[in-house]
Design a protein that fits this description.
It comes from Laceyella sacchari. This protein is α/β, with parallel strands linked by helices. The chain has one domain: 3-Layer(aba) Sandwich (Rossmann fold). It is built from 6 helices and 7 strands; from the N terminus they run αβαβαβαβαβαββ. A 7-stranded mixed β-sheet has the order 3-2-1-4-5-7-6, sandwiched between helices. The longest helix has 14 residues, at about 55-70. It starts with 5 loop residues before the first helix and ends in an 11-residue tail after the last strand.
């Protein structure tokens, strides 16, 4: 296929924004695939912080990182992503190069435990404050489960409201497939202050 999947698009954008030595956050670690990807991006001098409310997700991600020899690059929090501002070290504020969120439920887990619009929006809003200039916020949206469409609409509406002078927002979706997942990418721009570029 020539056209990239949402996973390929998310990884390409994150990798471009997240060189070795970076700080990154996985807001929904799930089975640890994106957590490991971020750990590879940041390298031995960077660090990844991961969040999930389910113990199964913590255990699976820990095992995946351990097997890959990347456990020391990651700090895992067994808590909701909406508490990320309370958990991330204060000195990382404004320095996080990438946030990744996969909404919905834990694959091969309890499908009744899903991300919720109010906590997701709280987490995304906090993420914009912790992002570095040039940083990327990636959100995979899934609508094939109860509550998924409501959450996706809420997230897209929130993203539309972000000021264009401060953020570039793109939305990728396959439109000829029912309930296809979609991808939201948000880049934090350099906001010019009065006098920038003047001699």
């Amino acid at each position: 296929m020539i056209l990239p999947s949402i996973l390929a698009s998310a990884h390409a954008a994150v990798k471009a924004a997240c060189p070795p030595g970076s700080i990154a956050v996985d807001g929904t670690i799930g089975n640890g695939h994106d957590t490991l990807f971020l750990a590879e991006c940041v390298g031995p001098t960077g660090h990844v912080y991961g969040f999930d409310i389910q113990q199964a997700a913590i255990e699976r991600t820990h095992a995946r990182l351990q097997q890959a020899g990347r456990r020391e690059r990651v700090t895992l929090f067994h808590t909701s992503h909406h508490l990320l501002a309370e958990q991330l070290p204060e000195d990382t504020r404004g320095h996080v190069r990438a946030f990744m969120f996969n909404l919905g439920y834990l694959p091969h887990g309890d499908e009744q435990v899903i991300t919720q619009p109010h906590t997701t929006l709280h987490a995304l809003e906090a993420a914009t404050s912790w992002m570095a200039t040039g940083g990327i916020l990636s959100v995979a949206l899934y609508t094939g489960h109860p509550g998924g469409e409501e959450e996706a609409r809420a997230v897209i509406d929130w993203a539309r409201s972000l000021p264009a002078h401060a953020y570039q927002v793109m939305w990728q979706q396959t439109i000829n497939r029912n309930q296809a997942p979609s991808l939201l990418l948000i880049e934090k721009k350099h906001v010019k202050k009065r006098g920038d570029g003047l001699s």
